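Incident log entry.

Two folding requests arrived from the same account within the same minute. Monitoring flagged them as a possible duplicate submission, but the sequences differ. Recording both here for audit purposes.

Request one:
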Amino acid sequence: MATEILMPALSPTMTEGKLSRWLKHVGDDVRAGDVIAEIETDKATMEVEAVDEGKLAQILVDEGTEGVAVNTPIAVLSMNGETVAMAPSPPTPKAAPAPELVTRPAASAATHAVGPETVAMGPEKDWGPASPITVREALRDAMAAEMRADGNVFLIGEEVAQYQGAYKISQGLLDEFGPKRVIDTPITEHGFTGLSVGAALNGLRPIVEFMTFNFAMQAMDQIINSAAKTLYMSGGQMGCPIVFRGPNGAAARVGAQHSQCYASWYAHVPGLKVVSPWSSADAKGLLRSAIRDPNPVIVLENEILYGQTFDCPTDPEFVVPIGKAKVERAGSHVTIVAFSIMVGVALKAAEALAAEGIEAEVINLRSLRPLDTETIVESVKKTNRLVTVEEGWPSAGIGAEVVMRVIENAFDWLDAPPVRVHGADVPLPYAVNLEKLALPQPDWVVDAVKKMI
């Protein structure tokens, strides 16, 4: 006898998902309750548990397959040790778009895989060979490397240990480092953040994971009034080497209370350093630097980027310095400054502009506090135009700060007023069509540039 394992519905609104990873293989024994696979939806990564016992006889859907409809057979389980005839293949799920190679200007020396496209990378220290990994894997590898190197480093947060992270960032860390260094907490951000700040003040190096930075609002007093201010208020006698990390900004249909970008909130505060990675290399290199830093560092990740794959240097010493932006694409007609997921939007806009003969230089900020004013100003002095892109709100945003830095340092080089592209100045709508209308798209950036030129 055999039974089919079906693609589960992980929420009432789920219609399809991505089969991201098989944890069991053909021929493995399966018991009821065993985790057999991981499924990604537009909201989260979830585990699939077996409800029956038997042997995994056949896998019908390969790892990485997207668009697998709910209730589609994904595997076959044989019961009572019986041999199972190969089941017919289910209807082919929707496949991810085939990679499209984009030709860049001859001046671009290197290329870097970014999901479905290839983009040019600006000058950067040559760290040697690189291999493709997801942003999720890069963050995990960064934490594991620093935890191996320093016994004072530990990870704490909701579901980081037994469940291996709400977004599977901490996979395998509990097994390697044990429950004293990978610590599950109750749902009490104010409590476990305060505990962690106290640990940092006493010489440990905590990594505090927030399930989203929206939940970190419960711990604002601990972050702003304790972690950020203690070094100053103690006259330099007490430092606070702590990392606060987790997803920031919009995900997909999680509502206004879970879709806020906190970049300008934290970048406003003296005593904090703030970074926001885009690629796997950014994620791994910046997080390693953040863990080593003697100051409190905010690491603003992006949930949508977790599953995206980029090349990342394999050098075991690889780090990205905090405070240094990166030119992702060289250009001569306009400077586009972005961070986090908006770097991808800016690069797509640059592709569209190039087709019309407009060469945009795209700068990935990576660090929001300190901000790399020098790289931005140097670019604007070459292109004479500036567009900033962020998914956050316009008032007192990162774009406003970048524009002011350029006005203060390169006003005479500007041939047109700078333009900010940003999220709509409203709480993010829940409806998918309205959500898209509220978040910056590549054509918004294209329109902004064309109005300047």
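Request two (distinct sequence, not a duplicate):
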Amino acid sequence: MKYRFAAIAALALGIATTSLRADIIEQVLVKVNGEIITKSDLEGRQIAALRQKNPNLRPESDAALKAALAEVTPAVIVDAVDEMLMVQRGKELGYSMTTERFNSIVENIKKENKIESDEQLQAALKQEGMTMADLRRQLERTMLVQRVQQTEIMQKLQVTETELKTYYDAHKDEFATTPQITLREITIAVPVTAQGINVAQDDDAKAKAEQVRGKAVAGEPFARLAADYSDSGSKANGGLVGPLSKSDLSEELQKAVAGLKTGAITPVTRTTRGYQIIKIEALQDTTTKPFDEAKNEIADKIANEKRRGEAAKFIERLRAEAIIDWKNDEIKKAYELGLTQSRAVTGQP
């Protein structure tokens, strides 16, 4: 597992804020099974959420800051309570972070951030208002949450062969390739002036295009004709374009190539670019990836969907079993709003 110092610092802002304000009597917002979340815990998480949402956020007024906080607070307080419940569950299961494991993670942090000594790390932590003890507490909380998720959720996500096949049969369009075409083009441009298109020049361009097409049909190399006559930038490559989706062609060209096979040459076609002649170099029709090749992709899709569902059910169970004692009505309202928003996303009632 890789840890970057900036990410750890952001995660630990709540702890850091508490450390900086240790001499102030904390306002308790809520007790979760007897453990408290304080006002400075919440403020640290709010700051982290605002930074994550917009690193360059500079509210123009107190009203703007208040609005930004109101937007992030419901999800922030729900996350804070859920994390506490997960950490408590991890402790119930007997999980803890050994000194050896902590030291290993610290070395990884130092390596990732090119920090050469413990003294430099402590100085960097101090700039974030943190101590090594703060860092260890946050890393242990993160580890406990991950272990609980692995034990209570991830190990239960078995995907059967029947589920894989059922998904494949119902979503074959997800494994279909887009029809593609590789072509060569010759474009004979029609001059456009401020007065519009001159009819005589338009006729001359069309006649030239018909003459060039005649040479191509007679067997002259299309690539050489493109290099000699085309007004398109692709002339440098013998008019070669693609592969590209057929839907990327203009409506006029889609009609011109419809039903043609590899090697066919279209009639001269008037487009917004002038008069064009197209030779079909290669066609790739729609194909569907075989089930055996799609199995791993399907398994990931189903497992991710199950994970979201199982995670939502698991945290709902922890919430239902918890004793949550609110000490601040406004934060309680924000929590209830956050729950409503979270359940709408996960599809929970």
